[in-house]
Amino acid sequence: MHIEHPPELTWVSRPAQQQPCWPDPVSLQHVRDQLAASPPLVLAQECDLLTQRLAAACRGEAFLLQGGDCAETFAQLDAATIHSKITTLLQMATVLSYGAALPVVKVGRLAGQYAKPRSQPTETRDGITLPAYRGDAVNAREFTRAGRTADPQRLLHTYQASAATLNLARSFLGNGLADLRRVHLRNQDFAACSPSHPRYAALTGQVEQAFRFMDACGATPQRAYAAEFFVSHEGLLLDYEAPLTRAGRTAGPLYNVGSHMLWLGDRTRGLGHAHVAYFASIRNPVAVKLGPTATPDDALALIDKLNPDQQPGRLTFITRFGASHVRDKLPGLVEKVTASGSPVVWVCDPMHGNTQVTADKVKTRDVDDILDEVTGFFEVHRELGTHPGGIHVELTGTDVTECLGGSHPITPADLHSRYESGCDPRLNHRQALDLAFHVADLCLRHRPPQPEQVSRSAQPNRPVPLQRPAKGELR
Ligand code: PEP
Ligand code: MN
Question: What is the position in ligand 1's atom list of the atom closest to the CA of 349?
Answer without folding.
Answer: 9
